[in-house]
Amino acid sequence: MQHLDLQVVRQAAQWSRDGLPVWLCTVLCTYGSAPRAPGSLLAVNGQGHWVGSLSGGCVEEDFLERVGAGEFNQAVAVVRYGDGSDNRSNIRLPCGGILDVLVEHLPADCATQAHFGELEAALLGRRRLLREVDLRSGQCRLSDDHSQGPRVEQGEHYVRLRIGAAQRLLLAGYSSVAHFCAEFGKGLGFEVVLCDPRDEVMDNVVLDGIEIRRELPSLFIANGGCHRDTAVVALTHDPKIDDLAMLEAVRTEAFYIGVMGSRATSAKRRERLRRIGELGDAEMARIHAPIGLNLGSKTPAEIALAVLADILRTRSGIAREAL
Predict the structure, then answer these.
(1) What is the CA radius of gyration of the chain?
(2) Number of domains in the chain
(3) Which pLDDT belongs to residue 205?
């Protein structure tokens, strides 16, 4: 499934190639209830066409009117919607929220098109980028992103944006816990992929909106199924599924790798992975086992909640001891 940011960047690049200037808008932060998360994109061209979303409708219409009236011709601006502080806009968001939006006016030139090409590569999972925009000059700098953290970071004179592929949750094998992880992950906006070759397990499984692949998760991973924005979790208690998935996952750039089991089971698995897979300390340190935050979870839904909470903690760059 092509996620919305990729559609925005591809369309904006095409407009630029067609000789049209582009206004690229990014949600920087939200206060209260807001319909779109920080980092969400909208692109508008010089003919009033747009792609993407900031709010679900009302902000987009107001912004188009203001662009048509000749506003936002400077290289960069930050505009707030929702609290009435901008006299040029009386927009009130339906849920009472407030949005701060970065607006970049990008000319139709080769530099802009090359820039969009770099963003497209990042959104396809080929690399992860930090996109830093100078709020005084509008100049933008791209660098490789090797860390986890908030999608948007703001300083006094800059904005730093993390650009990467759609967050993927790869479930290595089906179980009752994996079922809830799939549902929770989908609700949190992850692209969820479930891999399990076992017909006796999968024949009656129904998961709407989840990509189900009847193959060993280790094969899916070995064939390029993971990128830097992938979380790999193994939740079956079947070593043929779980252990092989771990052996392949540590060879990728997945940002989270975890496997379910008690402390005793996890210790035995670690010994097997060292002995059979010849994994070293650095590779073993990447595996979260036992998986998840210690929430006192007992039921499958509670365990899944603990797993997704730990994935979100890691994605946000928060150490466990900081909780």
Answers:
(1) 22
(2) 2
(3) 92
